[in-house]
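URGENT: need a sanity check before tomorrow's submission.

F., can you look over the PLL-like beta propeller domain-containing protein record below? I want to be sure the sequence and structure line up before it goes out.
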Amino acid sequence: MRASLHRVLTGALVAATAVVAMAPAASARVVQPAQVDFGPVATLSPAVGRDVDGSLAVFARGADRSLWYDTQAQPGIGWGGWRNIGNRQLAGKPVVERNSDGLLTVFGRGTDNALWWRVQTEAGTFGPWTRIGGGITDDPATARNSDGTISVFVRGTAGDLWTWKQDVPSGTTGTWTGLGGGITGSPYAAPNADGRITAFVVGGGGALYTRTQAEPSGAWEPDYTYLGGVVIAQPVAQRGVDGKLRVFVLGGNNGLYVRTQAEPNGAFEPDYGYLGGVWATEAFAVSRQADGRISVYGRGTDNAYWTVTQNTPTGAEYSGPASIGGKFAGGAAVAVNVDGRLAVFGVGTDRQVWSSTQVEPDGGYGKWSIVD
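Structure tokens as predicted:
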């Protein structure tokens, strides 16, 4: 990363004239602590993916540092029961990605600060934990290459960005590549419309930077691109139906900001857009609605989950923050059911995993319930 990554930030996100505080809404549902003794006593934000049979699978780290997971009893309906597939050596949050054959792969940082993974052998069944190696300091991020291989992005012990890429789609071996820089926290990665992956990182002074593959599934461009701002949590990004990447960040005032590519696969617009709110200092979750609008989810200062959604699938205007209720101890995760309804997951203040699913695609959210 060029020297500018280490310079003192001379400009920050333009402060909004008024910060929109997320006061509890009168209609917000409140999660009541439940007396339950099943499943993990979850300690970190969950991860969720869609299984090869179409059912959602949710993963969480238990208080025993093992990995636990539960899958829907059938696609979009119920839950089959928690299973412990851990080795009591998971140091951070799990991250889930699908192999090219549709089977889920889980990555995580071990207590030895190495990257580990566990791969499904069939729907609902996982093989053993395998140590990939490396020395990492934060939770990994993943993205699928255009050739079907998975790339994993991590922060090394010296503060550099590294990526590990499968040698072949659904393969069991991979290759490390150092991408340099001096980054803080966990990276994020998302594919462009042309298949090239862009990695988003926070550098010196809290500024946001990107680095993009020079060609799909291939080598990387030689330098980072400076997007500025003061970012205090892991960024997240989502490609819209118009092909443009949008990156969402938590600014220094704990407000939500967005920056959008001017054209698909191209440079980002010169300014951030302010989307409001006062949010907890942690990563957001992001997904697309069935109609193509992007929704962002995060935890407010009242510990409820709130969401901000595009007004139109290709537009630059977003709704104000709206509460979907609950009482949570960490960040949200979101996934899409086979029928297009979004499902939001989180670890409650009671340390159980809770979920709320849209009543219909693009619609409101149903009652919060424990994932059992």
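My own read: Residues 38 and 372 are 7 Å apart (CA to CA). The mean pLDDT is 90. If you see anything odd, call me.
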